[in-house]
Amino acid sequence: MADSVVTQLTLDLIQLVRGAERIQFIGKAAELGVPDRLRRQLRSFSRRRRMIAVQGLALFDDDLSREALLDTLGDRDDEIRLAAALALGRGDNRPGLDELVARLGLRDHRSSLLTVTLFRHYANEAPDEVQALVLDTDLPLSVRLAAIEAQAVSGDYRLVPAIVELGLRAPDDSEELPRYLHALGRIGHPAARDAVLAGLASNSMPARVAAAGAAGRIALLESADQLAGLLDAPEWWVRFRSAEALLQLGDTGIVRLREAAASGGELAREAAAAMLAERGLAP
InterPro entries attached here (predicted)? Predict the structure, then answer.
């Protein structure tokens, strides 16, 4: 049987088992020389073969495999470099996130979905390292935003004051403002108040949509009047998110919805009545 077939079959079997049996399979694979073949495969011209090699080496936490993955951080393909970083980040002896960022060249390039995945892993395992990226003004904005989104998913609220400050400083029509507001809503901490209230008054439609979502998630009662005013906004998404947020405010918001359904402008009446009806509430 060809070495490549043995290697692939072994990797497939390892993926199918768990616990002690998985450890035994990994040990047997090492005896069969699977890690050696995978390390050689990293030099292949085929992107697919190199990616398979990276994913396979992630199973072996030995020094040679780790060194090979570190070398792969310089691969010509962005996704393979990031896959190698993910493999290293999941190992027992993971490198620091700042080292990975430097070796991946993220200080000079935009982030990708795999970057966010890498940062999410570190947000769970080493949140302080992700926070350091958010506060590093020398990093490209896209990388800092990826770090913020990773931190938001983890639910760690220690960065809320920093994200609030970034949101308040962001230009009204910027791409980053709605992303800051979305992250604050995802974290759901009331300390986001100032940025959320400012976002509701933004001239940017995406920012108002994100701010309305955050206001509802946080249950920010102070936002009730602003949300009620946005029920008459020309953009459907702003009206919908504002009505949804009012519902999340409980009685305070439901009162505003009923008032709008009874005596608001045409757009506000329609948005409020639709939200109340959807939740089985009388207008």
Answer: ARM-like, ARM-type_fold
